[in-house]
TrEMBL record:
Its EC number is 1.11.1.24. It is found in: Thylakoid. It comes from Streptomyces aurantiogriseus. Thiol-specific peroxidase that catalyzes the reduction of hydrogen peroxide and organic hydroperoxides to water and alcohols, respectively. Plays a role in cell protection against oxidative stress by detoxifying peroxides and as sensor of hydrogen peroxide-mediated signaling events. Keywords: Antioxidant, Disulfide bond, Oxidoreductase, Peroxidase, Redox-active center, Thylakoid, Transit peptide. Residues 5-154 form the Thioredoxin domain. The keyword Lyase does not apply. Monomer. PANTHER family: AHPC_TSA FAMILY PROTEIN (PTHR42801:SF4), THIOREDOXIN-DEPENDENT PEROXIDE REDUCTASE (PTHR42801). This is thioredoxin-dependent peroxiredoxin. CDD domains: PRX_BCP.
Length: 158
């Protein structure tokens, strides 16, 4: 398994289907601003729903700060579509059914079986600027990512 991505690493590019079925390429999105890429275990579980809703509730703040939120799990496109519709999620969910992107980023598993919950903030140059890994502290994923996005915007105004 690859070591986990660290601050300063070049983020691996990825292309995965979104909840609409359309392919999304990370590096295409970076041209528009900072990307908050968060890996989560599974749609419809309590922690993952809380995290998705926290990102939803802060979506406008991220957008205003020039960042796009993208969630990634191994759930299918259809499960993502239902999850996004049920909770009115305004951001992209990507389906990594084979788990290859999770491996490319070195996202760890908990107890070897539960896919980890890790958030990466990636700047326009594709560099990882922040990594937060916590299976249980879902709100902190959102808060820390937002702080980093705001810092990036102040040092690199558009």
């Amino acid at each position: 398994m690859a070591r986990g991505m660290q601050v300063g690493d070049k983020a691996p590019d990825l292309t995965l289907p979104s909840q609409s079925g359309a392919p999304v390429r990370l590096y295409d999105r970076l041209g528009d601003g900072v990307v908050v890429l968060y890996f989560y275990p599974k749609d419809e579980t309590r922690g993952c729903t809380a995290e998705a809703c926290a990102f939803r509730d802060s979506h406008e703040v991220f957008t205003d700060a020039g960042a796009e939120v993208i969630g990634v799990s191994s759930d299918s496109v259809h499960k993502h579509a239902a999850f996004a519709a049920r909770y009115n999620l305004p951001f992209t969910l990507l389906s990594d059914e084979e788990g290859q992107v999770r491996k490319d980023y070195g996202v760890p598993s908990v107890l070897g079986i539960i896919p980890g919950r890790v958030t990466y903030v990636i700047d326009r140059q594709g560099l990882v600027r922040h990594v937060f890994n916590s299976l249980t502290n879902t709100d902190q994923h959102v808060n820390e990512a937002l702080d980093v996005v705001r810092n990036i915007q102040t040092e690199d105004p558009v």
